[in-house]
Amino acid sequence: NKHHDGLCMWDTKLSDYKSTSPECPADRDFFKEWADASRATGLKNGIYFSQTDWYHPDYMRDEKSHKRYIETMHGWVRELCTDYGKVDYIFFDGLGGLATNWDSENLFAMIRGLQGDAVVNMRCGAYDAKDWPMHRWLQPSEDVRGQLPMTRGYPGDFDTPEQQINRMQTDRPWETCMPLQNGQWQYSPNCAMKSPKGVIQTLVNVVGRDGNLMVSAGIMPDGRLDPRAVKVLDACGDWLKQYGETIYDTRGGPYYPTPFGVATYRGDTIFVHLLQPLIDPLTLPPIQKKLISSSVLTGGEAEVSQDADGAITISLPAEHHHEIDTIIVLKLDGPAKDAKPGRLVLGSLATGKKVTVSNVYSGLACFAGDNAVDDWRYYKNGLEVYRDVDSDFNRKADQFRWFHTSGSRWGIDDNEDGQIDRWKTISAEEVSAEAVAALSSGDTQRFMCLVLTPKELKSLGLGPEKQKQLGATIS
Q1: Over the range 43-65, which residues count as b (16 or more CB within 10 Å of their CB) and which as e?
Q2: What is the CATH number of domain 30-245?
Q3: SS3 of 290-338
C-alpha cells in the first residue's frame, strides 16, 4: 500500500503522490484490485504500510512538521481501514522507531475501532521512551547503555523477525518474513533465488518453533511475478499437497528443536521432521503419553520404540532418508499438547573422561607442559573474569585469578588443597571485602591470608625498628 518511498498505491484524498494520480502512468487503485481479488478467491485481505516516508516534506523534519505528518499518516490508515471493506491483517514497517514517533496510542485506538478483528504486527512502536521528542528517531536497540526509561509501548498482536528464524516461542504468535531472493526484497534479475528445498526447510523450521512463514516474491517492472519465483512456489506447493497435513493447522512441539530437525503436532499425533540424515539412533526426551503406533509418511521404514520412562528412539536407514524432510508420524494415546517432554538423562559427558588439549596458547611450547589442560578461563560478556592455573603441570590448580568486572585478585595455593594460602595481588577494596567475609564466617585461615608475613614486612624497607614494631602489632 505504501513503502518507504511514500507512493500511495490507492486513491488517497490526502496526497497527489499516488498510483491514481494523472501523472502516474498506472492510473489504478491497486489496493482496491487487491482487496477485491483476495475476497473473490477466499484469501485474507492485508495491508502493508510503512510509517517511514522519504518523500513527504514534513516527515521527521522538526516537532511541528512531524506532527502534521502524523495527522496525514493516521488519515491514510483511516482511509485503508474504511474504504476497502474488511481488513484481516496489518503489517507496519516503520524501520523501528518508538510509539512516540507514530503516536501509536491514538493510531491503535483508531484501528481497533474501525477493524476490530484485524491482527497487527509489532513494528509500530512496540517500545517507547518517556518525554522523547516526536521527531527524534530512536530504536530500542540503540539504547545500549540502558540510560533511557524504555517502556513497553504498543506491541500489537504478533512478532515479526525478518529474514531469520525465531527461537521456540509458544506464548505469543510470531511470523518470519523472508524474500524468495537471497537477502533482497525488490526484484533483481541478477540476484539468486532460494531453492525449493531451502524454502521448505525454512517453513518446517519455522512451524516447528510454533511460528508462521511469509515469503515475498519480487515483482518485475511490468507487474508480473519473477518466473523463477513462480517455479520455486510451484515446487513448494507440490510438497505441501503431499505433506501439508504436517504443517497446516499444527502447533510447534511438543519437542524442542534439535540439530536433526523439529516436531509439529495436532490432536494425538506428533510429526517428527528429520531435516538431517540420522547416523545414530535419535532418542527423544520422555513424554507423559504412550506411543500407540508409528509410520514414515515420506516412505520407507523406521524402527521406533518407547522405553519405560517414555523416551522414544528412532532408527532410520540411510536409504530411507528423504532429501528435503523425512517425516515420522507418532500416534499417542492422548493429546500431544499434554505430552510434556521431560529431561533426557544421558549421563555426564565430562565426568571421568580423559581431557586432551585442543589448543596451546599462542603456539608457545612453554605452555604445552605434558599436553594436559593447565589453564581454565571463564568469560562474561566477552571479558575474562576468572582463571584457574596449574603452574607446575601436575594437573592441580594452584593459582586463582580474578579479572575485569570480577576484581584484580591473584591468589596462590601453595599446598594445592583448593584453599588460597596467600595473595600475590589484591587491591585495598578487596582486602576490606575479604576481611569482612572472613570475620563474619569465622574463617581464620582466610583472614590470615591478608596479614603481612615477615618476608613481606622486610620487603617494605621500613628498617629493623619499624619492622619489629609493626610485626608485634600484627602478632
Answers
A1: eebbbbbbbbbeebebbbeeeee
A2: 3.20.20.80
A3: CEEEEEECCCCCCEEEECCCCCEEEECCHHHCCCCCEEEEEEECCCHHH
pLDDT confidence of residue 83: 97
* Distances from the Cα of 77 to the Cα of 4, 47, 66, 72, 126, angstroms: 15, 9, 16, 9, 18
Interatomic CA distance for residues 336 and 255, integer angstroms? 10
Give the integer Cα–Cα distance in Å for 397 and 416: 7
CB atoms inside a 10 Å sphere around CB 149: 11
Percent of the residues in the chain that have a pLDDT greater than 90, as a whole number: 59
Cα–Cα dist 347/356, whole Å: 20
Rounded Cα distance between 126 and 115, Å, is 20
All residues at 6 or more sequence positions from 339 whose CB lies less than 8 Å from its CB, including other chains: 254, 265, 270, 287, 288, 289, 332
Q: Where are the domains of the chain?
A: 30-245, 251-338, 361-474
Question: What kind and span of H or E run contains 151?
Answer: strand 150-152
Is residue 12 predicted with pLDDT exceeding 80?
Answer: yes
Q: Report pLDDT for 181.
A: 92
Phi, psi of 295 (to 5 degrees): -160, 165
Predicted pLDDT at 95: 78
Q: CATH fold of 251-338, please? A: Immunoglobulin-like (2.60.40)
With beta carbons less than 8 A apart as the criterion, state whether 45 and 88 touch.
Answer: yes
Question: How would you class 156 by CB atoms within 10 Å of its CB: exposed for 0-12, middle for 13-18, buried for 19 or more?
Answer: buried
Q: How many DSSP H helices and E strands does the chain contain?
A: 10, 20
- The angle formed by the CA atoms of residues 68, 80 and 99, to the nearest 5 degrees, is 50
Mean pLDDT, range 403-423, rounded to an integer: 86
Q: What is the pLDDT of residues 33-89, one digit of tens each?
A: 999 999 999 999 999 999 999 999 999 999 999 999 999 999 999 999 999 999 999
Q: CA angle, 316 as apex, 259 and 263 as ends, to 5°?
A: 45
Q: Is residue 270 helix, strand or coil?
A: strand
Biggest alpha carbon–alpha carbon distance for the chain: 103
Joined together, the cell numbers standing for residue 241 give 499437497
